[in-house]
UniProtKB/TrEMBL annotation:
Pfam family, one: S1_2
Record InterPro entries: CvfB_fam, CvfB_S1_3rd, CvfB_S1_st, CvfB_WH, NA-bd_OB-fold, S1_domain, WH-like_DNA-bd_sf
Protein name as it appears in the record: S1 motif domain-containing protein
SMART domains linked: S1 (SM00316)
A molecular function (GO) term: nucleic acid binding
Every S1 motif domain range: 79-140
Protein species of origin: Desulfuribacillus alkaliarsenatis
SUPFAM superfamilies: Nucleic acid-binding proteins
Domain of life of the organism encoding this protein: Bacteria
Length: 213
């Protein structure tokens, strides 16, 4: 398989049992074989693809398997923020992201919150740049920004619930995630900050607004 080095964002024009046809050039569609698809596609979808020459037909085709096509020469450094597209999901490892639709990126499972699908656009923080140039990513902001964001989330939910939430530092991680979609550790940091500021009080049943502000 002779692959090109460019990544393209193309719209699905038509789908068949054998694959999908993508809008490519006027009067010339690009074929994306079913075996080269990483998710189900329908007409109108926009997908990220690489190109290769089919060895049997000598025709240019598309593939959604981008791992070997993405660049490891990004301009990013630790804690930079970037945009990316989810291009593959490994349930045991994490979510693979094409940063800027060009560069290698991976969000490990321990950094994931919420559900993702192939094709999703996400904002990521560069957690580290590996020696091979691939980017380890996080959905979390830097610690001080994350605490501020989580604290704001707690305050907004408290105001929606008449000043009371039935979760505190003794609650199960699952309960906290169901309410706020953050980890228990993140909740404790944010609640601790609000407690120190006098914005909330902790009770046996949960947390409450102090109504001081």
């Amino acid at each position: 398989m002779n692959e090109t080095n460019k990544i393209h964002k193309l719209r699905v024009k038509n789908t068949t049992r054998s694959g999908a046809f993508l809008e490519w050039e006027p009067g010339n569609d690009l074929f994306l074989p079913i075996r080269e698809q990483t998710t189900d596609l329908k007409n109108g979808d926009v997908c990220l693809v690489g190109l290769y020459v089919n060895e049997d037909t000598d025709e240019l085709c598309a593939t959604m398997y981008l791992y070997d096509l993405l660049s490891t020469e990004s301009p990013y450094k630790k804690n930079d923020v970037a945009q990316g597209t989810v291009y593959n999901i490994n349930r045991d490892l994490g979510v693979f992201v094409a940063v800027d639709d060009i560069y290698h990126g991976l969000v490990l499972n321990k950094e994931l919150y919420g559900n993702f699908a192939i094709g999703d656009k996400i904002e990521v923080r560069i957690k580290s740049v590996r020696e091979d140039g691939k980017l380890e990513l996080s959905l979390r902001k830097q610690a001080h920004n994350e605490i501020e964001s989580d604290a704001q989330k707690i305050m907004e939910l408290l105001k929606q619930r008449d000043g009371k939430l039935s979760i505190n530092d003794k609650s199960a991680p699952e309960e906290i995630k169901a309410e706020l979609n953050i980890s228990k550790a993140a909740f404790k940091r944010a609640a601790g900050r609000l407690l120190k500021e006098g914005a909330i009080k902790i009770t046996d049943d949960g947390i409450e607004l102090t109504w001081k502000n």
